[in-house]
């Protein structure tokens, strides 16, 4: 069974606003409007390539799906519907704006087997939302999230770090607000300044200072741990490489191993807390879930090196009985 979603990009259509950071053409790598024929062709090809039902969803990403003209939105859903009804895909997943959700739209989405809805929340701070020209309020995020959950959809929330006017406190508060909305999944994106955006103009004039990689890793690792502790899955950290991001990149945090850097920072934090009980022992074996060994060790061994600088020598080993972010310490003596 294959698991990767079939992603169909609906670039920059239907957005009543132009967010400070957004250049959808750059992010999706696509400029042409998606047609129902494109949907049919892509899904048919996916079936032919795999020759079996796919344990996956059809994902309409990239724009503000429920804000595009209604007839057009339905024509795309009509094209995917037969594939789902024949059992080739599990359902449809869409991403949209918080102010483009209401009862009527959700009832339409239900008819077309939409199972998961992701909202671009980005921040719950009113000032950050306004400065970045989001065109929706914190209240829109709260209302849309609860409506989506009350109608039985899976809820995904996307947030950003390092936006214009953002601070560490505001970002962490957004994380806490998101936890209280109980989404099933979260995506976290540090701000990337792209050519052709308002942020890019402000950056060039010195009016916007992008977040550093170090600060983004620090904040995202804190968020990651809080979401994990509250049983919320973080399904993406940082923009995917590929598409046209490299071509449009101006500044900001865009690192191919960003997720791994954040996960390693979480492990380092947890280990440092545990080390407080091992003040006298400096030579230690650290046990983690086997698949997490490289994250504990750190990108290019950075966690081991940092601990060495603090006087600890660690050897990381796998233990099948441990789960993610769980670790045990043993003195070597
Ligand atoms: S709502 Fe989404 S797609 Fe539209 S401009 Fe803002 S970020 Fe881009």
Radius of gyration: 22 Å
Shape: globular
Task: Name the structural class.
Answer: alpha/beta
SSE string = EHHEHEHEHHEHEEHHEHEHEHHEE
- Average pLDDT rating: 92
Distance, first to last CA: 47 Å
Strand order of the largest sheet: 1-2-3-4-5-6-8
What labels describe this entry?
three-stranded mixed sheet; 2 domains; Hypothetical Protein Ychn, Chain: A; seven-stranded parallel sheet; binds iron/sulfur cluster; 12 strands; TIM Barrel
Report on the architecture of this protein.
Helix 2 packs parallel to helix 3 (70-85), helix 7 (168-180) runs parallel beside helix 9 (213-229) and helix 9 crosses helix 11 (258-275). The protein is globular. It has helices at residues 24-28, 36-50, 70-85, 103-111, 126-131, 138-150, 168-180, 198-204, 213-229, 245-248, 258-275, 293-297, 302-309, and strands at 6-9, 57-61, 91-96, 114-122, 154-161, 185-190, 192-194, 233-237, 249-252, 283-288, 313-318, 328-331. It has 13 helices and 12 strands. It is of the alpha/beta class. A 7-stranded parallel β-sheet has the order 1-2-3-4-5-6-8. The chain has a 3-stranded mixed β-sheet with strand order 11-10-12. The chain has 2 domains: 6-256, TIM Barrel (Alpha-Beta Barrel), CATH 3.20.20; 277-331, Hypothetical Protein Ychn, Chain: A (3-Layer(aba) Sandwich). Bound molecules: iron/sulfur cluster. Residues 12, 15, 17-19, 22, 24, 63-64, 97, 120 line the site of iron/sulfur cluster (SF4). The site of iron/sulfur cluster (SF4) has 11 residues, from loops.
Question: TL;DR of this structure?
Answer:
The chain is of the alpha/beta class.
